[in-house]
Structure formats: C-alpha cells, structure tokens
Write a structure and sequence with these properties.
heterodimer; A: 316 residues; mainly alpha; two-stranded antiparallel sheet; 2 strands; B: 329 residues; alpha/beta
C-alpha cells in the first residue's frame, strides 16, 4: 500500500490558508492583551511575587523573626522602611516572608481544590445516575455549611499541636500545611459543579461517541477527551479561587487560628496589629495593603482570562 | 463459499423515556458475509442508526436497553461481551464513521493525537510507530502534506477533509467491518462522490465488509451488494441491489424509489413524496406499521404484522400483498 498508487487524484480543496490559523491560546492572548486591567493585574501579581520571593535575598528569615525589644513599635524609618512591630521585628522583612506563606497557601490550596473539584465533577457528570446523585448530594451538603464555620472548626480541631516541618533548611509552622489542606478541602464544591455541568453537556457530543466507537476506555475519555475541553472555565475559576484562598488564610490567621508565629503570614501580621490600630497604623497598613493588591490583581487577571478564554467571545 | 462475518438475530432495542417506552428496533435479523457491502436505507427515525449502535453497544443505557437478540460476530455474541471486551472490538474489529464530520472530531485535540490513539490502544504501537502509520493513513485518504498536518486541529480542516480524517481513524487498525452512518449526508454532492469513491477503493484494498447506512438510494446503487430497507424499527425488505431496483416488493420501497429525483423526469413534474409521517414509536403498532400510509392496504395488513417472507432468491419482503398477489408495477 504505497501512497502514490492509492492516493486520490481529484483536485484538493485549497484549505491551506495564506497565514497559519491561530490556536486557542494565541486567540486568547490577543483578546487578553486588549483587557488593560487584566494586564495590569498580571504585571502587579508578578511584581508582588518578585517582592515576596526576591526579597528573601535582601533579608534573611532569621532577621524577619528577630525581635529587638529596644526597637518596639518604631514608625517607618530608613533602618526599618515599614517600621517595627510590638516586639521589635522588622515589618518589611516580615511582609516578605509572610508574602511567601500567603502566596504559597493561595496557590497550593487551589491546586488541591482543583484536583478535588475536577475529580468529583468529572465522575458525577460523566457517569450520571446514582454516582452523580451521591456525589452531588454530598457536595450540596458541604455547600450549605458556611465556609467560615468550616474553616474555624477545622482549624481549631486540627491546628493544635502540629509539629514544625523543615523544608530546604527552613522551619515552617506545621499550621501552614493544615491551613492549606483545610482551605483546599472546603472550597472545591463550586468548581465541582462547574466541571460537572461541562461534562454533562460534553459527554453527549458526537466526538465522544466517536471516541467510544474507536474503543477508547472511559478513563481516557474522561481525562484525555473531555477534560481538555473544559480547561478554560477551570482556569478562570481556579485563578479567582487563589484570591479567595489568600483571603481565607488572612481571616483565619487574623482570628488567631491560622498560621502560628513565629512563621509570618500577612493574615497573622494583621492579628498582631489590632491593639495598635490608631497608635501604630504601619502595623496593619503594609500587610493589609499587600493582601488588597494581591486579591485585586488576581481578580483582574481572572476577569481578563474569563473574557479571553471564552470560546463564545469572537472579538479579537 | 463465502464466510459469514456477522449474523444478527431478533435484535430489539427500546428506550425508556418519560413519555413511555420507545420501541426503536423491533426484532431485526440479517447477516453479512466477509467483504460484503450491505446498505441500510429508510427515512429518519426508522431505527437504522440505533440498530447499528446497538451492535457496537454504544446505546446509552439507561435510557436505552437492548432487550433481545444475538449478534454473532465471527464466533462470539457481541451482545454478551463485557464492556472491556467491547473496547477491544470497537475500532479494532468493527469501526464506525459518523454523519457529521464537523462534530465528530474532538476540537481541542490535534489530528495526530486522535489518529494515533487507537493505534497505540489496539496495536500496542509506540508513539513514533503510530505517527508513521498515521502519516501513511492520511496519505491513503488523500490528505496532502500529511506529516505537517498531524499537528493541526480539526478546525483547520474543511468538512470533506475532516471526513477523510474520520475514515483514516476508522480504518487505522484495518477492521473487518466498517459501519458508515450516513457518512456523506453532511457533505456537498461533489465531495460525497469523492468520499464514496474513497471508501469503495479502501474496501478493495482492506477486504472489509461495510454496512452503509443512508437514505440516498443513488449512493446505494453504486456501492452495495445487498440492500436492507427499514421502517419503524422493522426490516421490511431485503434484496440484492439489482433486484431491489428491478422488482421492489414492498410498498415502502416502491414509494422511496418513486421519491427519487430523476434526470429523465419532466421539469414541471413535482417530486413524489410519501403521504403521512412515520409512526409514533411510543405505541406498539397493531398490524403492519406501514399500513396507514400504504396505497395497497388490505384487511389483513391492519390485523397482522407481516413477518419477513421470501419472495425470490435472496429476496424477502414483509408485505402481505407482495407475497399473495405481487405488487402492481
């Protein structure tokens, strides 16, 4: 069966365009670029990451946790650009290391959330029937309990005496891992519903029937044929979730149940500043501002991605 | 002596819907030899696609249910196989191509990814081997510059090109049986002719049997060895292709043939249509399902549903009138 003896001699339609057609990602980028606020959000987020992770080259973690009681509650100065806190720690250094923790929690919690949400949503949507009923009733049961309540109860219950963990020569309060797991485990429900809805409609499409007809297994159809089609809403939802996870960390830490000192996070820095709201505003201004900017930039970014990746928006 | 490839007996499929039970396929029996091409014709909703999807067990259950019958392929009953065993049959032994190439390819996966999947799955090829084979398959179905096009997405292909890709996918593992579910309906006439020619040529080189579902009797004439006419989930006539056109023995077949546009018809004549609509499959028919639309109807037609009865060599019809007195010509 050589090619030339069998290939058809009819003239081929000219489906070779002069320019290469754009891929989904190229189209998305063209649309995203026009969304000025989203671009701004993206750039700001990168700046904040450079601040948190690059700042580690300026100050050591030891310095961030070093307390000098002779320098308590100093206002911003050239020696301490963001001032010092109630036990004389440098706030700039602490916002840098606290930023690492807050961003880490935000991204890892969302990773857990995304995996759980995709698994539950995909299985429920694809198999339907009894599997769907059980998984969705479970999801709804979790949804009717307010998230703040979940977070507080779980943090109180599991946050007690978790041993310190050591990664790359650094010690972290074990509470960081607990918080990540708690936030991840309490936030996947909305994503699961989005993924389920996508699967419900996609599994009826003809190309899925065609995939079945070539002997593709259910596992491959779920993860290699349907899932790539749902990637746009998942990316958008997950991006916006990062902001929520950072906020969730901030408020449980603010209530004293989150990340435990001496490990800094933007949330527990706020907690320490409550008593000095008027007397030392720099205690809450800098971590508060960083949380605000991070959440804002992620939301702008998510908004831009929603417009850019929506296959129904055809405007370039 | 030709070998029998597939023998279907008394296949029945129904759907449980909120409105009641839809009897989509009501006990069809037919056989297919190795390398033979059988066309299945009938108007929309008469059970052509459902019966073929039933053979591959691609009916969503629930609501669908195959509740009777056997389908002996080589020596095994397809209807008794486990889902796992069916995955080995689909794409390897029996392939299917679908009506609308615009929606039958996954829009987010490259052509190469979709083509190599069954090769790796069924033949255990490495990615590299599969890609080599995919390139030669695309060449065989007439896609120019195949090695470059492997990385393209479906939206970068025209409708006819996509159907060629679908055919390449279906034939990748050299199946013994190809089920083509109206593969030319969504294409314009010139592309239709190319696709028919392509499948006919590949049939020769692969020596495979084909079940060609269509409602285009023109395509049937050039392609098929035998024709099965379906109506309301029943087989109403089965004949060698020439006999079907020369001596059609069921009023429904007559009506279908009369509805064909003809080059030699005068232009001021209107196309004939069949009065009435196909029966509601929610109610089990009483008597012959075609009786309400039939111009030759006799009393027995309303009382008793005719079984498929022999009216000649390799020729069977489910019509009381045809068997007793013969249809008027």
């Amino acid at each position: 069966m050589t090619a030339h003896s069998t290939s058809l001699s009819v003239p081929q339609p000219a489906d070779d365009l002069a320019t290469e057609p754009l891929t989904l990602w190229q189209l998305g980028w063209l649309r995203f670029r026009r969304h000025k606020m989203a671009l701004f959000g993206g750039v700001l987020l990168i700046v904040l990451m450079i601040f948190s992770f690059g700042g580690a080259f300026l100050y050591t973690e030891k310095y961030a946790n070093f307390n000098d009681t002779s320098q308590r509650l100093e206002p911003p100065s050239s020696e301490h650009p963001f001032g010092t806190d109630s036990i004389g720690r440098d706030i700039l250094a602490r916002t840098i290391y606290g930023g690492q923790i807050s961003l880490f929690i935000g991204f890892v919690a969302v990773l857990i959330e995304t995996i759980l949400g995709i698994l539950v949503g995909a299985l429920a949507g694809y198999y339907g029937g009894l599997v769907d009923s059980i998984l969705m009733r479970f999801t709804e049961a979790l949804l009717i309990i307010p998230t703040i309540f979940w977070l507080l109860v779980l943090a109180k219950f599991y946050g007690g005496d978790v041993p310190e963990i050591h990664i790359a020569n650094r010690a972290f309060s074990g509470s960081v891992i607990v918080i990540v797991l708690i936030i991840g485990a309490t936030s996947w429900m909305y994503l699961a519903r989005i993924v389920r809805a996508e699967f419900l409609s996609l599994k009826e499409r003809e190309f899925i029937l065609a995939a079945h007809a070539t002997g593709t297994s259910n596992f491959e159809i779920i993860f290699y044929h349907i899932l790539p089609n749902t990637i746009a809403p998942i990316i958008v939802s997950s991006t916006l979730s990062v902001a929520n996870a950072i906020l969730a960390e901030a408020y449980i830490s603010f209530l004293g149940l989150g990340v435990q000192p001496p490990t800094a996070s933007w949330g527990n820095m706020l907690d320490n500043s409550v008593k000095y709201l008027d007397s030392a505003p720099w205690l809450w201004f800098f971590p508060g501002m960083l949380i605000l900017l991070t959440v804002l930039s992620i939301n702008f970014l998510g908004d831009g991605l929603r417009d850019a990746l929506d296959p129904r928006s055809r405007v370039i | 002596m030709v070998d029998s490839l597939l023998r279907v007996t008394d296949l029945k499929t129904r759907f449980h819907t909120p409105e009641g039970i839809v009897h989509a396929v009501n006990g069809i029996s037919f056989h297919l030899n190795e390398g033979e091409t059988v066309a299945v014709v009938g108007e929309s909703g008469c059970g052509k696609s459902v019966s073929m999807l039933s053979l591959l067990r691609l009916i969503p259950t629930p609501p669908g249910e195959i509740y009777s019958g056997t389908a002996i392929y080589r020596n095994d009953d397809l209807l008794k196989k486990s889902e796992q065993e069916m995955e080995d049959v689909r794409g390897r032994e029996i392939s299917m191509i679908f009506q609308d190439p615009m929606t039958s390819l996954n829009p987010v996966l490259t052509i190469g990814r979709q083509l190599t999947e069954s090769l790796r799955l069924h033949l255990g090829m490495t990615q590299e081997q599969a890609e080599q084979r995919a390139i030669s398959l695309l060449e065989q179905v007439g896609i120019p510059d195949p090695s470059r096009r492997l990385g393209d997405f479906p939206h970068q292909f025209s409708g006819g090109m996509r159907q060629r890709v679908m055919i390449a996918m279906a034939l990748s593992c050299a199946p013994s049986l190809l089920i083509a579910d109206e593969p030319t309906t969504a294409l314009d006439v010139t592309i239709q002719a190319q696709i028919v020619e392509l499948v006919a040529r590949l049939r020769e080189s692969l020596h495979m049997a084909i079940i060609w579902i269509t409602h285009d009797l023109g395509v049937v004439a050039g392609m098929a060895d035998r024709v099965i006419v379906m109506y309301a989930g029943y087989i109403v006539e089965e004949a060698d292709v020439d006999d079907l056109y020369d001596i059609p023995s069921h009023p429904y077949t007559l009506a279908l043939l009369a509805a064909l546009p003809r080059v030699d018809r005068r232009r001021d004549q209107r196309l004939k249509s069949i009065p009435g609509a196909p029966p509601n499959l929610l109610v089990e028919p009483h008597g012959c399902p075609f009786a309400p639309r039939c111009e030759f109807v006799i009393e027995q037609c309303l009382a008793e549903n005719p079984p498929l009865m022999s009216v000649g060599k390799n020729h069977a019809s489910a019509c009381w009138v045809a068997v007793k007195t013969g249809l008027p010509r």
